[in-house]
Amino acid sequence: MSIKLHHSNEELFKLAESGNSDAMYSIGYRYLKGLGGLPQDVNTANGWFNKAVAAGNNRAIAIVTPSSEPSIQQQSSLNENNFLTVTVWLVLAFFIARLTVRVMKSKKANKHVDLMINEHIKALSLNYKQKIKYDSYGNSFEEQWHKEVNHFIHHVLKKDDLIRNMLLVEQLDYSDVFNKINQAARLHSDSNNSIDTVDVERLSPIEFEHYCADILKANGWQARVTQASGDQGIDIIGKYNDIAVIFQCKKYSSPVGNKAVQEAIAGKQFSRANIAAVVSNATYTSSAIQLANTTGVYLLHYSELRYFEEKISLQATSQMSAVTA
User: Is residue 74 domain-resident?
Assistant: First the structure.
């Protein structure tokens, strides 16, 4: 008997009970699709398909028998799995892309930081020398230098929009930037202590003081630039073999006069140093030379600092000989 679409469910069930495999298949199909007033129920549908298979129905056999094509239920499951897989990959791709963008921005911001540090490295290096202070016991104090680094970050680096935004969202670590500036200034300061390559005439008065201190340190001295207003005109405090020397540094374009000698005398008395000296790139007036000879103040060209320890060592030896005599 041929099964028609207009057969009622009741008729189909009666036919199925009589062993009609087509009726069994049709009932299974209606359950599978939820047709003819039957609820959609995959398990019930499969039960009827299996009965139809047992009765030899070819269409049911095609559905139930495994083949290269997935069943409707399998296809639905595969579609769900594929959807989940695609979703996971899309989410993963999104986060990878976002991370890549962040890394690229971070690298670009760090490059901007490096370029701006290099652009201002001379000023940073000079401030590094000026701001780090020492007490008479050799202890260093870096608070002023740290303030200078913070000032550089806030008023120079943050003018760059990328750097400012990256610091704001903490994709640039503030402490890393701080340490990078500190290290760059220190390295530049140390590497540029090559006193033979310095063009002295281009130095500012403050740079000249540090240059003179570098010469002394390169020749075995302990030397530091005072940078303090209360040091009675002392620019450099030096020590060589327990001989304390104060230096007045004068970067002039004309001869150095009496005032520099007087400042050196006052500085020596104030600090109770053994020796006072004036250092300059220029010559000295005759009155300055006369006053220096009378008071024992050394008048030096900066090039003489390389060998100044020989002079003061000879002076110390002669003074000791005079005492023992």
Answer: no
Instruction: Read off the tokens for 258.
Output: 């009496």
Give residue 174's domain range.
82-192
**Segment holding 243, helix H or strand E:** strand 243-250
Q: Which of 162, 192, 222 is the last residue of a domain?
A: 192
Q: Token pair for residue 248? A: 């007045």
In this structure, what token pair is assigned to residue 65? 């028998």
Give residue-wise pLDDT tens across range 82-100. Answer: 777 777 777 777 777 766 6
Which position has the token pair 């057969």? 7
Give the global pTM. Answer: 0.51
Dihedral of CA 265/267/272/275: which sign? negative
- Helix, strand and coil percent figures for the chain, each rounded to 5: 65, 10, 25
Measured from the Cβ of residue 42, the count of other Cβ atoms closer than 10 Å reads 14
Cα 233 to Cα 109: distance, rounded to the nearest angstrom: 44
Q: Identify whether residues 234 and 307 lie together within a single domain.
A: yes
Are 205 and 257 within one domain?
yes
Q: Based on the structure, what is the number of domains in the chain?
A: 3
Which of 131, 161, 192 lies at the terminal end of a domain, its last residue? Answer: 192
Q: Of 183, 128, 134, 129, nearest to 151 (Cα)?
A: 128
Alpha carbons within 13 angstroms on the beta-carbon side of residue 8 total 3
126 Cβ partners below 8 Å, 6+ apart?
206, 207, 210
